[in-house]
Design goal:
Shape: elongated
Number of helices: 9
Strand content: under 5%
Number of strands: 0
Helix content: over 70%
Oligomer: single chain
Largest sheet: none
Number of domains: 1
Low-confidence stretches: none
Structural class: mainly alpha
Order of helices and strands: HHHHHHHHH
Distance between the termini: 64 Å
Length: 158
């Protein structure tokens, strides 16, 4: 086999590995988001009806409990070493919109639990989120999300 063909096959193999690797990383990020978000939506809904129940008794606010104690899965995530890896991925993929969206979704859910929010702050993630390219990407993501949500809301009311 010629050296050029060998080099081309090696390059092709590297591209396949990198694409597979990125797809795998995105799948892992989606799983992490799904895992940490489990039970959080129910707590948010309980928090919405809390104001009505508060008048009737001394029940504690579910949202406040989530902030202070987290959910079972948020506490498990907090005990893992994944926070550092999420921060690393955000820095490494700072120009990749697909990765940034997945990472921001994870950070958003983690931010509901005080311990995890503090860990992300300690890693300097806020600085990274508002600096340079990531800030531009985030602005673009938020703008697209806002436009999408407005369309969804309008469609529901028609």
């Amino acid at each position: 086999m010629s050296p050029a063909k060998t080099e081309l096959l090696a390059l092709e193999e590297e591209v396949i590995i990198n694409v597979f690797s990125d797809e795998l990383k995105i799948s892992v990020l989606e799983f992490i988001h799904s895992f940490i978000n489990e039970g959080v939506e129910e707590i948010k809904l309980q928090g919405e009806s809390y104001e009505e129940k508060k008048i009737q008794g001394a029940e504690s606010n579910p949202i406040q409990r989530l902030i202070e104690k987290g959910s079972k899965n948020l506490r498990a995530f907090d005990e893992s070493e994944l926070v550092e890896q999420i921060v690393y991925l955000m820095q490494y993929y700072s120009k990749n919109m697909v990765f940034l969206v997945k990472i921001f979704e994870i950070i958003l859910v983690c931010g509901m639990y005080r311990n995890l929010a503090q860990k992300f702050v300690n890693y300097g993630i806020l600085k990274d989120m508002v600096s340079g390219q990531i800030c531009l990407q985030l602005t673009n993501i938020l703008l697209r999300l806002t436009l999408f949500l407005k369309r969804e809301i309008i469609a529901q009311h028609l």
